[in-house]
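Annex B.
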Amino acid sequence: MTPPDRAAAASAPAWLAYAPMLFLLLWSSGFVFLKLGLAYADPLTFLALRYACVVALVGCAFAWLRPALPADGRAWLHLAMVGLFLQAGYFACTYLSLKLGLSAGAVALITSQQPILVGLLAPAFAGERVGLRHWAGLLLGVAGAALVILAKSSLGTATPAGALFALLALLSIVAGTLWEKRHGTGTHPLTANLVQYSVGLAVSAPLALWLEPMRIDWAPALFGSLAYLVLCNSLIAISLLLAMIRHGEAARVSALFFLVPPTTAVIAFLVLGETIPPLAWPGMLLAVAGIYLVMRPSR
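EamA family transporter: predicted structure tokens.
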């Protein structure tokens, strides 16, 4: 761990020790609720509706509490850039890749390479050193996540446009992670969320209007899915992710994404009754072993 990372870890709040498991549970559950919601709305329309709800909710809380605003103009720029990469780039490109025919398994397989790219780029962009043990853990995590994804779904026929948007989603979340690590500040969560989700809404709403008929079936299941994604996924999980990146090492935090496919498979089994193929179990064990190597503190 580099000296700046030691200082960040020392100043981290005590509750952050529980953040990885809570983030993993909320983020993985989001895929299950997203699957429920997409049965009642077009993908980008659903994403824009989700962002509109977040902006309305956070905007009301912001007007009521009036948190302190960043004094430096560059801080506003950094908040907007993280919103552009994570909320607009990652989610919009993921939804577009699904719309253009790429299977969910193929999208997950492409975007699960995020920790590897972060590990490669962290020394140059975030000043972090990724050791051999961490690299071994990252490779195990890739292998485990790939086994779970391949066991759960067919990759299908990849269209060039769908594969391109999946690659753009991968690059977007990598860029957002590294940008937050390098430029992130202690901005109040309400301010950060309001700026970042406003950027996401400004991108996703025009795309939905341009590419989709904007179909929405106002069923009870849609409201349940939307409520979970707004409160648990958009507000709590993303805030936890950015806090972990700010107070820790970007490569280690990104490695948590290796456990998303196995955790999602277990939650889908419990909630939706989806089966877990035999090949997925060794994949889960490999992912857990990789996470252990990456997250274990260095001497």
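The two ends are 9 Å apart (CA to CA). Residues 18-295 form one domain. Further annotation is deferred to the next reporting cycle.
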